[in-house]
Each structure stands twice: as structure tokens, then as C-alpha cells.
Design a protein that fits this description.
Length: 334
């Protein structure tokens, strides 16, 4: 059932989300945890799904999107009708190992519907987008606070797009370390994705540097495909004792720069998911709404083993206790 992580040979790459394109999956899927479920016909693959399967601290198998891939999904060869595609998709889903708990964020509602039809449970995630039709209403539709923050940041900071992937990841890692966080996904993979994206013309890095001290206050990395422009990796400076605090509008200024770049390319700007169960979820929603974004959903599904479900009933009260005692949980987007 699981084959080596080699993309199915179909002529759809340009139509796929960036997270499912060959170049991205080849980098993100180079670890031994990567698995590709595939359906074959006449000895040729006609449908595939790339995921990672890992063991958690208790030794239970869990399936997730590829590292740094906010979306995953079924890649089905061309030449099939919609009903045939649905049959092929359900065939692949039925053959997924049952001793694994799956937590997947899917790219398309078609995939979502097929997973639900095969017993997966919905776990919808909030998301925000700005469609090309809304660009003409910006920045007038920004909230008053967003406008004020961007104006102030524009006076204090200089935005540039010349930062290298290596420098961005070093800045990102340093800010994680100052928060005493450890990335749970290798940053070397993110760096290589960003480098290849820059080479291919499918990624950009925006940095906000202080005019007075030359310090970098914030940086964001974006990826795009033929339809969407994704707000992929943001980070902002964590000051140590004696250092100036970063401008509170730094990230908003960079977001506005990225939104304008997306508009110039005719792409929908995608805030790439809000997350669920995080203490800063409401803050992100207010930020994105303040930037003039419209709410939508991400198609998340899950299927848990019996043991996972049983343990889940005890984990949630423990998580709540930890949250109340030690503060916020770690989130890669900060």
C-alpha cells in the first residue's frame, strides 16, 4: 500500500497547491517517516497521497501532513470522470492502515468529502483569505488600529525583500530560542524549501528593519502557486534586556507588503490557517479581520485509533491544567 515518496506521474503540477507540487514534496518528504499511499491500475499509479507517519511519545502511530506543508491531498491522474475519481479516492482511503491515527489538513472539499464518506471525522479549521476582488477595497477596509499601526511602522521601519533563506531561518530560530521554544519540525527542511522556492520564483521574504538601529523587527516568508499566495512563516524579534522592543505594527506592515505583491500577481492571499485550540487563536482572527480578510475554512479530518481516543479523554483535562498553570502552548506562527 505504501510506496516510496515519488510523485504520481500526472500533468497537474501547475494546478496543484504549492504544498503538493513535486519540488515541495521532494524536499519536505525526504525523511524516512514519509509514506505515499498509492492506487495502481495496469501497474501504473493513478492516485497518491503523501503523508508522514511518526510515533508519539507513547509509541502510537500518527499520520500528518508532510513537514511544513499546510495542505495535503489526493493526486489523481487525468482522464477520469468525477464519479470515477470519487471511487478511486475512496479506494485509496479504505486501504490506509488502521493502526494509525490520522490528522490531516486537505486542500480540496472533494478530498474532504471522500474522507468523511470513509469514516473520518470532521475537524474544520478557521482560515482567512483576501480574494482579488477585494484588493480594490484595501487599505480602506482595514480596521482603524491596523491603519494606525501600519502608518507608524512605515515611519520607523524599512521593508526589503533581499534577505536570504539562510538569514531568515537563522532569525526565525533565534526568536524561537529566545522564547525557549524548540521547533518540532526540522528548520533545515524549511530553509531548503525557501531556497528552492526563491530559485523557482514561488517564494518571497519580507523583512522590516529599524531605521534608527538597523535591527530587524520582523520577517515573513510567503509561498505561492497559480492560485494562492500563502502567509507561510512569520517571526518577530524577541528583545533581550537593554534592547528596544519591536514595533507593534511590524508584522502588519509586512503583511500589507505581501498582500500588495499577491494583488500584483492576481492571486488570492491566504493567511494559511488560524489553528484551533490555541490561546492566541482569537488574536490571530482579529489581526486577519483587521487586514480586511474574509473568513473561510480549512478542510481538516481525523481518524483515531481506539487507544488514541481513550487516551484523548484523559489528555484534554491535562492540557487544560497545563495551559492554566504554565501559560500558552507553543505555536509555530507567532
Amino acid at each position: 500500500m505504501f510506496e516510496p515518496p515519488k510523485i504520481v506521474g500526472v500533468q497537474l503540477d501547475g494546478k496543484l497547491p504549492v504544498y503538493m507540487q513535486d519540488w515541495f514534496t521532494e524536499i519536505a518528504g525526504r525523511g524516512e517517516e514519509t509514506k505515499r499511499a498509492a492506487v495502481f491500475e495496469d501497474g501504473k499509479p493513478i492516485c497518491s497521497l503523501a503523508i508522514v507517519i511518526i510515533r508519539n511519545g507513547l509509541g502510537m502511530k500518527q499520520g500528518y501532513n508532510l513537514p511544513w506543508a499546510r495542505l495535503c491531498g489526493l493526486i489523481i491522474s487525468e482522464g477520469f470522470s468525477e464519479s470515477q475519481k470519487a471511487q478511486i479516492a475512496r479506494r485509496l482511503i479504505r486501504e490506509l492502515p488502521t493502526d494509525v491515527s490520522y490528522f490531516l489538513t486537505l486542500a480540496k472539499k472533494f478530498d474532504y468529502d471522500q474522507f468523511l464518506s470513509e469514516g473520518f471525522q470532521p475537524a474544520i479549521e478557521d482560515n482567512y483569505v483576501i480574494s482579488p476582488a477585494r484588493y480594490r477595497m484595501l487599505p480602506e477596509s482595514f480596521s482603524k488600529m491596523t491603519k494606525r499601526h501600519i502608518r507608524h511602522a512605515g515611519r520607523e521601519l524599512v521593508v526589503s525583500t533581499t534577505t536570504t533563506a539562510e538569514a531568515f531561518i537563522n532569525f526565525y530560530e533565534a526568536n524561537l530560542a529566545r522564547r525557549h521554544f524548540t521547533p518540532y519540525i526540522p528548520l533545515t527542511i524549511a530553509r531548503d524549501i525557501l531556497e528552492e522556492g526563491l530559485r523557482r520564483g514561488q517564494s518571497s521574504i519580507f523583512t522590516a528593519t529599524r531605521r534608527d538601529t538597523g535591527e530587524i523587527d520582523a520577517a515573513i516568508a510567503c509561498l505561492w502557486d497559480g492560485d494562492r499566495y500563502y502567509y507561510w512563516m512569520p517571526t518577530h524579534r524577541v528583545p533581550t534586556k537593554g534592547e528596544t522592543k519591536p514595533d507593534q505594527g511590524a508584522v502588519k506592515l509586512l503583511l500589507w507588503s505581501a498582500i500588495q505583491d499577491a494583488a500584483a500577481r492576481g492571486l488570492t492571499f491566504d493567511f494559511d490557517g488560524v489553528g484551533s485550540g490555541l490561546s492566541n487563536q482569537d488574536g490571530k482572527s482579529r489581526l486577519y479581520e483587521g487586514m480586511g480578510a474574509e473568513s473561510c475554512v480549512r478542510y481538516r479530518v481525523k481518524r483515531e485509533t481506539t487507544l488514541e481516543r481513550l487516551l484523548g479523554r484523559t489528555r484534554e483535562p491535562v492540557k487544560l491544567l497545563i495551559r492554566r498553570t504554565f501559560g500558552r502552548f507553543i505555536a509555530l506562527k507567532f
